[in-house]
Design goal:
single chain
């Protein structure tokens, strides 16, 4: 196994593989337009990374950082290589690249009645095995509730909001209005 990374840009030679995996891994309502992801990835605080095992495309991650906080907006592993330890290797790579940073990500909240309840439980177990734990708030966006998971010390709601605003930019932040819910059941918009 020889893991390597490449930066994803609009000129990336295998952008079609990243795009296909993006479309098959995330429901349409959770997908930010690819043009916007590529446009924002030119900023120094964004890393759009493709992962390879030698020449085999493994997956990609889209990461946003601010100070000592890194947000995993997207992480996807190709279906051809899932359940072979690549997700753990990629998370380890991210942790090493951003050593000292708290790492956060969102996953679909677990509901027993959800169509993909088993998948949600597996996903959460995977992240917990890799050292992630629940934040003290959740986020309601894209028409659903998401748990916020953290690796490292806690993240405040204010830090999270600032990171999102930095990514979306001033104009788009006027339209992107997620709701935040504390674990105590109060709305913290």
């Amino acid at each position: 196994m020889r893991m390597r990374t490449e930066i994803v840009t609009k000129h990336f030679k295998e952008l079609y593989k990243v795009e296909k995996l993006y479309k098959t891994s995330f429901p349409e309502n959770e997908r930010i337009p690819l043009w916007f992801l590529l446009w924002r990835s030119r900023k120094e605080f964004v890393d759009y990374i493709a992962f390879y095992d030698d020449e085999v495309f493994i997956g990609f991650a889209y990461l946003i950082s601010d100070r000592n906080l890194t947000f995993v907006l997207y992480l996807a592993i190709s279906s051809e290589v899932r359940s072979k330890g690549y997700g753990t290797i990629i998370l380890s790579t991210i942790k090493q690249k951003y050593i000292g940073n708290r790492i956060i990500l969102n996953i679909e909240a677990i509901y027993e009645v959800a169509d993909n309840s088993e998948q949600r439980i597996k996903r959460k177990n995977f992240y917990q095995k890799n050292g992630f734990q629940n934040a003290d708030f959740k986020i309601y966006e894209y028409g659903g509730l998401y748990e916020v998971l953290i690796h490292g010390s806690n993240v405040t709601l204010e830090e999270y909001k600032l990171l999102l605003k930095q990514f979306t930019g001033v104009l788009f932040s006027l339209f992107y209005k997620p709701k935040f819910i504390s674990d105590y059941g109060t709305d913290r918009t």
